[in-house]
Design brief:
Distance between the termini: 17 Å
Mean pLDDT: 96
Low-confidence stretches: none
Number of helices: 9
Radius of gyration: 20 Å
Number of strands: 24
Largest sheet: 9 strands, parallel
CATH superfamily of the largest domain: Metal-dependent hydrolases
CATH architecture of the largest domain: Alpha-Beta Barrel
Helix content: 25-40%
Structural class: alpha/beta
């Protein structure tokens, strides 16, 4: 790969928007990010970004599928297909996410993720795995399959971590279950993030979980007891604890825009992480689709089971970023931080991905003024669109 210079446009760095800006990369790494007045290397291919945003690649740390493919059902090649479609939305890295299932099914799905992780040149990179369940509270299962839910089992978890070959970054669990606190300690000592979710924990139980090492909240507000003024619960504990990074789904369905704005203001640009929780219906027409063993009915942006339970989303990360700017009234710099830089830290690749800084991977995308993806590069290779 030769050098590429993207000149003009609005270049979003960790703390500023440079306009007109210049981004140069060579051999898959960023070599210059700054003013467009700087000289362009003679051998660089020039890309004109006038009128566009130049943004670091988006990173989705909670996603179950797209375009008919499901992390739990479609095998390693299905996961690779998901990777190839995600670049259409500016997503350059992601964590395939499992759902509650029998142990052997989880072992199989994690193995598929490991097999797919090397990826190919045309797709987003698999930079980890998010195990959502199976150690969650049946009362707060949401769309999780009941037959896959059970109490924590450290032997099972150890086997799952071995099957993940170091790729499991995040495990969602309910801390109030028997063995929940022990599981948190077990994960923390192995460098895995313990995330509180699909839980009926009280405020006191949540604070105890945070005290022993939980640092994350899975799709905050969803699959949790609502806040009551005399029973603050898990949500309040997560909002009030600086240790917790909170996942937020900005689709306008999982969270009212007003609640999203409140949560974002409380957690801020350093403790919020934007996710899609997307599933196999993403990118496909309305109608009946699958999430693991469930039938899910999609009508517009609303995805529901037969009983009316909300089941995943069809959100894409470019729309998620646009909604954070609109609903949460975040600056573009801060919206990029919570959809790129913070997710990179969660995924354990913050030193190489998540922001436009010299030396990092050349993962970036161009967006129009409505934040619709027009072109994407992964490791310096154009994988989607035209500048």
């Amino acid at each position: 790969m030769g050098a590429v210079a993207i000149r003009g446009g609005k270049v979003v760095t960790p703390n500023a928007v440079l306009e007109p800006g210049l981004v140069v990369f060579d051999e898959g790494r960023l070599t210059y990010v700054g003013s467009a007045l700087n000289a362009i290397p003679e051998r660089a291919v020039l890309v004109n970004a006038d009128g566009k945003w130049v943004l670091p690649g988006l990173i989705d740390t909670h996603v179950h599928g797209s375009y008919g493919d499901d992390v739990m059902l479609s095998g390693a090649e299905g996961i690779r297909r998901i990777s190839r479609r995600f670049v259409e939305f500016g997503t350059t890295a992601w964590l395939p996410s499992t759902i509650a299932a029998r142990h052997e099914e989880l072992i199989q799905a994690v193995g598929w993720c490991v097999d797919a992780a090397p990826g190919d040149e045309d797709g987003a990179r698999v930079v980890g795995i998010h195990v959502e369940g199976p150690y969650i509270n049946l009362k707060r299962k949401g769309a999780q399959p009941e037959e896959g839910i059970r109490d924590p089992d450290l032997a099972e978890m150890a086997e799952l971590l071995r099957a993940g070959s170091g790729l499991i970054r995040l495990v969602t669990l309910a801390p109030e279950l028997p063995g929940g606190l022990e599981l948190i300690r077990f994960l923390v000592t192995r460098g895995v993030i313990a995330s509180l979710g699909h839980s009926d924990a009280t405020y006191e139980q949540a604070m105890e979980a945070i005290a022993v090492g939980a640092t994350h909240a899975t799709h905050l507000f969803n699959a949790m007891p609502p806040i009551h003024h005399r029973s603050p619960g898990l949500i309040t504990a997560c909002l009030d604890s600086p240790e917790i990074i909170a996942e937020l789904i900005p689709d306008g369905v999982h969270l009212s825009p007003h609640i999203l704005r409140m949560a974002y203001r409380l957690k801020g640009r350093d403790r919020s992480a934007i996710i899609t929780d997307a599933f196999s219906a993403t990118g496909l027409p309305d109608g009946e689709h699958r999430l693991g063993p469930h039938r899910v009915y999609v009508d517009g942006n609303v995805c529901k089971l037969d009983d009316g339970t909300i089941a995943g989303s069809i959100l894409t990360m470019d729309r998620a970023l646009a909604n954070v700017v609109e609903f949460a009234r975040a600056s573009v710099v801060d919206a990029v931080r919570v959809s790129s830089q913070i997710p990179a830290q969660i995924a354990g690749c913050g030193n190489t991905k998540g922001s436009l800084e010299v030396g990092k991977d050349a993962d970036l995308w161009l967006a129009d003024n409505e934040f619709r993806c027009r072109a994407t590069w992964v490791s310096g290779r154009r994988v989607f669109g035209h500048a």
